[in-house]
TrEMBL record:
Keyword Transferase part of the UniProt annotation: yes
Name this protein carries in UniProt: Lipid A biosynthesis acyltransferase
Keyword Calcium listed: no
Superkingdom of origin: Bacteria
Subcellular location: Cell inner membrane
GO annotation terms (biological process): glycolipid biosynthetic process
Record-annotated membrane-spanning stretches: 15-37
GO cellular component, one term: plasma membrane
Primary localization class, coarse: membrane
Species of the source: Sulfurovum riftiae
Length: 297
């Protein structure tokens, strides 16, 4: 029954999106996201705790509230764009996306390096792998399956355009190894809370946080380049994907030190991107839960 409810809700929302002119969509989503912001006390509190941990008193409360509201709006517009991108042509997709520092990825591909792209739940993160695959070639991503199997199938149908392959996050390491052996680009989201037995403790916004070591472990083993890539927008119509300098993971006799250094660099570039435009990040996730669980109660 829950599957039927979710799918029905999805298709009703999809119908709504297609009948509303684009020029009205942002206006309507601002109203809807503002309403959800007011009634969704749980995630509003999570975002508030995150901003307090990240910025302390260096940001006024008014600015924090503005960022939280924008996070809700960004999530809504991401869903709108996700639906509109179903079945989109390569040409139409690349018309609304530009690339900055694309020579970084092109050079790595030219040198036939094994490539691990890392990003965060930042901007229109669902559009990022779609655009990279459309322009640069086959890509494999890793994600958690949705609780609704039917919605998970719908999600992956959209994600798998332009030769994108999706792996279930649970027990994905063996599959990720095979991806790199097959010389496909591997894409990972690295900004989620990680369990104590899986994550490495690093600094993020001046606070300890558990960070996934998967990219570092694979990069060290296969001499792969870790290339950070983030997507941003000013108007939610045109988007820019920016590639950053590759993170080289050393391979010395001290494996733990090598992996820690690589993971810390990943956390650092993610923080730098968020600090430049904090309203682009998904603040509604309990990022610091392992270390500050009591703050989220």
């Amino acid at each position: 029954m829950r599957d039927i409810f979710y799918v029905t809700l999805f298709y009703l929302f999809k119908f709504f999106i297609w009948i509303v002119p684009d020029k009205w969509m942002i206006f309507l989503m601002k109203g809807l996201s503002s309403l959800i912001y007011k009634i969704d006390k749980k995630h509003r509190k999570i975002a508030q705790v995150n901003l307090d941990l990240a910025y302390g008193d260096t940001l006024p409360q008014e600015e924090k509230e503005k960022i939280i509201k924008e996070a809700y709006l960004n999530l809504g517009l991401l869903l709108v764009d996700f639906i509109k991108n179903q079945g989109i042509s390569r040409e139409a997709l690349l018309k609304k996306v530009s690339f900055k520092n694309e020579e970084i990825l092109q050079q790595a591909l030219k040198e036939k390096r094994k490539i691990i792209l890392i990003t965060a739940h930042y901007g229109n993160w669902e559009l990022l792998p779609l655009s990279i695959a459309a322009k640069f070639g086959p890509l494999t991503g890793v994600g958690r399956k949705l609780d609704s199997p039917a919605m998970d199938r719908i999600l992956n149908q959209n994600r798998q355009q332009f030769d994108i392959e999706m792996l279930d996050k649970k027990g994905a390491m063996k599959s990720m190894i095979q991806v790199l052996k097959n010389d496909r680009m591997l894409g990972l989201l690295v900004d989620q809370n990680t369990s104590e037995n899986e994550g490495i403790l690093v600094d993020f916004f001046g606070k300890p946080v558990r960070h996934t070591p998967s990219a570092a472990i694979l990069a060290r083993r296969f001499d792969a380049l870790i290339i950070p890539a983030f997507i941003s927008t000013e108007d939610h119509q045109k988007y820019q994907i920016t590639f950053y300098a590759p993170i080289v993971t050393e391979k010395t006799e001290d494996k733990d030190k090598d992996i820690f250094a690589s993971v810390q660099k990943q956390a650092k570039i993610t923080e730098e991107v968020i600090r430049k435009k904090p309203d682009g990040w998904f603040w509604l996730h309990q990022r610091w839960k392992n270390q500050f669980e009591e703050r989220y109660q």
